Amino acid sequence: MLQKHNAEAHMIQYRNGLHCTARILKTEGIKGLYRGATPSFVGIAVEGSLFFGIYSQTKVYLQGGVQSGEPRPQVIIPSAAFSGAIISFVLGPTDLIKCRMQIQGTDSLVPKSSRYSSPLDCALKTVKAEGVKGIFRGGCATLLRESIGNVVFFSVYEYVRYHMHSNIKANSSNHRNLVDIGVGIASGGLGGVAFWLTVLPLDVAKTLIQTNPDKNCPRNPFGVLSSGWIEGVLYSLGATVSRAFPANAATIVAWELALKMLGIKRD
């Protein structure tokens, strides 16, 4: 919301994330905060399953099936980039539906007759108006965001995790569990912050491309970034980074806990 409305003319201007939240609550109520949540939940569920599975299996393949304790860039970088590229094909359509559902609630330029009644309605109307390729609008920006961002994310995560485990000794299994959770929170949270600090401009470009009412609008993210994007980055930076740490910390802790419960050994 901050990316779209503060990066284009004739839109509602939000001073910060708190101002945006307060205005949504005032005009739409609590349900306004969850507008577009359904495609996000679906996208995240599919993304998480594919993402970590592809990353882990690609790492195993590149390591020749041999586990190595110390992180290796020649393994992490291609594994992260490949998994990010694959999931971008899932995230592209779900992000488009989410963004379009979110902006219509406060966008005075969208007449009520043209608003979407549900995520499915949004998807069907998009395909009808723009064809199947319309649902993948912003795909290039999404692919770049996920490939580049996840290289940064996993590089930070793997190195922070390795060095923290190397320097923290646990004297019992209970302490080990607490250490694992603490390391997961720190490494996942820092990885998430690094991800968004790196690719936030690409995310702003993606949002502007996906929500542009002109179906023939420019699709090159770098062309979009050449003008009018800095406001979207600056206004959404605080909200994005403050969300990144807890969200990614929780994701990593859940992933590592699932691996432990399934008896899958980590490096």
UniProtKB/TrEMBL annotation:
tRNA-binding: present as a keyword of the record?
Answer: no
Q: Which GO terms describe its molecular function?
A: L-ornithine transmembrane transporter activity
The protein's predominant localisation is mitochondrion
For this protein, the parts annotated as crossing the membrane are 33-55, 75-92
Q: Where in the cell is it found?
A: Mitochondrion membrane
- Asked whether the UniProt record includes Aminoacyl-tRNA synthetase among its keywords, one would answer no
Question: Where are the annotated Solcar repeats, by residue?
Answer: 1-61, 71-163
Q: Which UniProt keywords apply?
A: Membrane, Mitochondrion, Repeat, Transmembrane, Transmembrane helix, Transport
Tell me which InterPro entries the record gives. Answer: MCP_dom_sf, MCP_transmembrane, Mitochondrial_Carrier
Q: Name one GO biological process term.
A: mitochondrial L-ornithine transmembrane transport
One GO cellular component, as annotated? mitochondrial membrane
Report the membrane topology from the UniProt record: Multi-pass membrane protein
- UniProt xrefs under Pfam families: Mito_carr
Q: Which family does it belong to?
A: Belongs to the mitochondrial carrier (TC 2.A.29) family.
The name of this protein is Mitochondrial arginine transporter BAC1 isoform C
